[in-house]
Amino acid sequence: MKKIIKILLVCLFIAGIIVIATIGFNVGTKYSENTQIGINIGKEFEINDIKAITDEVFGNQRALIQKVEMYQDMVQINVEEASEEQIADLNTKINEKFGIENAITDVEVTHNANLKLKSIVKPYLVPMLIVTILVILYTIIVYRKLGVLKVLYNTAMAIIIPEATLISLYAVARIPVNRITMIIGLIVYIASITLNIVYLQKIKQGKEKEKSKK
Questions:
Q1: What is the pTM (predicted TM-score) of this model?
Q2: CA separation for the pair 116, 34 (Å, rounded)
Q3: What is the number of domains present in the chain?
């Protein structure tokens, strides 16, 4: 069973490398080149009401809809592309839905360039590197009797394999890379470190029991 899992993981990693090298990741609307539309509604509203309008105006395009401003009375919509006619139609339908009279000049339109994934990951690199070094030093010191090289290898693989699996899954399954991606990556990272320490502790306790029996 372990051999099958290893083979599947290797295949996934290879497929992930090929996909990343050829077509890259499926970047979410927020991070890809997009048009950002801001409309002040001036009252409370439901995201679902805006979504119904964007579905009608933009069709099959993915739309990221958020409430912004202090009182959450302004909607920000990010779509891959929007023509002047679509923006005007969107404004008209929102006016009709909420009984407001925004002119087309009141609509804030911003064209955002494609955001490189490096800039998304960069803030996390140094903290994760420091934590990784500290964890490796900790495991080597605490579990040195298990063999320094063995502990070092287990700890490194415990961190690398889950993250590589996550990255490959995102690439192969074409899961959109968005704001949640880094949170998931951090959760996997913390879980990997924790489980590795639990695993090493069990091995240590097992060896101590064997010695006490002798």
A1: 0.69
A2: 13
A3: 2
**Domain interval for residue 91:** 34-112
Could you read off the pLDDT tens digit of each residue along the chain, which spans 214 residues? 778 888 899 999 999 999 989 988 888 777 778 899 999 998 889 999 999 999 999 988 888 899 987 778 899 999 988 999 999 999 999 999 999 999 999 999 998 887 677 777 888 888 889 999 999 999 999 999 888 999 999 999 999 999 999 999 999 998 888 778 888 999 999 999 999 999 999 988 888 777 776 6
Domain end: 78, 112, 146, which one?
Answer: 112
Give the C-alpha separation, 171 to 12, whole Å: 10
CB atoms within 10 A of CB 58: 20
- Is 36 strand, coil or helix? strand
How far from each other are the two terminal CA atoms of the chain, in whole angstroms?
Answer: 34
